[in-house]
Hints:
This protein has 8 helices and 10 strands. It is of the alpha/beta class.
Amino acid sequence: MSKGKLQKFAEMETFSNVFQFPYSAMEGVTFEMRGRWREDYFHNQNPIVLELGCGKGEYTVGLAKLYPEVNFIGVDIKGARMHTGAKQALDEGLSNAAFLRTNIEIIDRFFAPGEVQEIWLTFSDPQMKNPRKRLSSTSFMERYRHFLADGGIIHLKTDSNFLFTYTTYMVERNRLPLLFRTEDLYHTDGIDPETRKILSIQTYYEAQWIDRGLNIRYMKFRLPHSGTLEEPDVEIPLDEYRSYKRTKRSGLSTSK
């Protein structure tokens, strides 16, 4: 581990807005603030919104600035990246922004039923080989149901045609209420001003992808608690590239 990363991890230990509970630290442990984020940390009764896979925390910080009456929590396992947003939130006095460093696979251990109102999935790894690891898979939807309010909103913003197509099929197969969908966010007319304001926030990598001429795709849908969720049984063309300038690792051209 580089000296810079070690310094960031050391600083994170002192940040009052960061909670670090990776999977290895949660074996047989109950998160004491589960169900009490509003009372014990935010000290208000405002809605809670999660950004899962928050990276540098651009959305968590940006949304917290736009909506001081809402509480935002960025979640990721990469502490060195998260350091950027956590430090900015502290420096700017954003009392409605917090960060949780943990594995998203155990996210339901940190929030009680109905404690969260919305979830943002911003440029998640498409996980083209493993459906169960996709943050918009039915496997994760079942986890989200444990703490997301009934009919709570899930936002997906991505550069990946594979992940966007897969999520579209997942929503259709399970008849989840689709609120909005566009395959080319920055060239779509008729987006209402409130949505446009939210979607104006750009992550570090998003700006790079836009410069490379890639379409940014966005959808939002509701997740009711009722009904059995089923995976879509369709073949989807793989992305011709991988995020962060990595090439495809498989010789396959499609996946489910």
